[in-house]
């Protein structure tokens, strides 16, 4: 088959995949164009079945080809209702995107301390406790901020740019990648890596988004946070 015919076949396949949901198709195309223009190499779009979130975590792990449940993550949008406008900077914002593993439980106190540490460690005028009160946005509010609906939040191309706090536990995984939502409840971010086996046949290995590429290439400010650390690491924070 010629390259032109292969390309035509690929386009036709994509049309078949998304023909029943053009909203999903628009999201997938927007992200694909973005990743191509920015030179991302570890990210691609995968469509999953409806009812994906009705299944348990073990099923989802197998469906995505993840090495373990620890590789599956979610993105949440938090608002700092204690935000003080006069201290606004790239290190101190009203809204934050938080990425954590499904197998862990977010500790609100440690998340707050991590957000404070980012500001206190980088700004001459330090914001104290009264300048922080993080709450999870509801579905409608999250949609307005990100442009993505329920179970579809992906930390790219938000309606409003914001810092990203990502669990540094993901950086300790081996291999060091993870899986994310893809802008729609039925889309996920992952990458198929093409390799050649000893008989020179093409094999595809499921991989997720590279942790290092996410940290180094993302256009938003990304902060790996040790959300499970002990309180002794936060003693320097401004009260």
UniProtKB/TrEMBL annotation:
Cited InterPro entries: YbaK/aa-tRNA-synt-asso_dom_sf
Gene3D superfamilies (alphabetical): YbaK/aminoacyl-tRNA synthetase-associated domain (3.90.960.10)
Molecular function GO terms recorded: aminoacyl-tRNA deacylase activity
Domain of life: Eukaryota
Alphabetized PANTHER family for the sequence: CYTOPLASMIC PROTEIN, YBAK_AMINOACYL-TRNA SYNTHETASE-ASSOCIATED DOMAIN-CONTAINING PROTEIN
Name recorded for this polypeptide: YbaK/prolyl-tRNA synthetase-like protein, putative
């Amino acid at each position: 088959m010629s390259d032109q015919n292969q390309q035509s076949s690929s386009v036709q396949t994509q049309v078949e995949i998304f023909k029943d949901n053009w909203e999903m198709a628009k999201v997938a195309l927007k992200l694909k164009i973005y990743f191509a223009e920015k030179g991302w190499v570890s990210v691609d779009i995968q469509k999953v079945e409806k009812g994906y979130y009705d299944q348990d975590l073990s099923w989802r792990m197998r469906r995505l080809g993840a090495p373990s449940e620890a590789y599956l993550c979610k993105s949440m949008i938090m608002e700092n209702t204690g935000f003080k406008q006069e201290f606004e900077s790239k290190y101190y914002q009203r809204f934050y995107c938080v990425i954590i593993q499904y197998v862990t439980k977010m500790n609100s106190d440690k998340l707050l301390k991590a957000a404070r540490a980012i500001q206190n460690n980088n700004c001459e005028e330090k914001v104290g406790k009264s300048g922080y009160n993080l709450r999870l946005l509801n579905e409608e509010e999250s949609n307005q901020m990100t442009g993505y609906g329920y179970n579809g939040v992906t930390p790219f191309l938000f309606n409003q740019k914001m810092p990203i706090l990502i669990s540094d536990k993901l950086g300790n995984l081996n291999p060091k990648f993870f899986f994310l939502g893809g802008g729609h409840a039925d889309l996920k971010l992952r990458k198929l890596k093409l390799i050649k086996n000893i008989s020179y046949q093409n094999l595809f290995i499921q991989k997720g988004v590279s942790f290092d590429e996410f940290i180094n290439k993302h256009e938003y400010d990304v902060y790996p946070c040790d959300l499970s650390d002990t309180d002794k690491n936060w003693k320097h924070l401004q009260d």
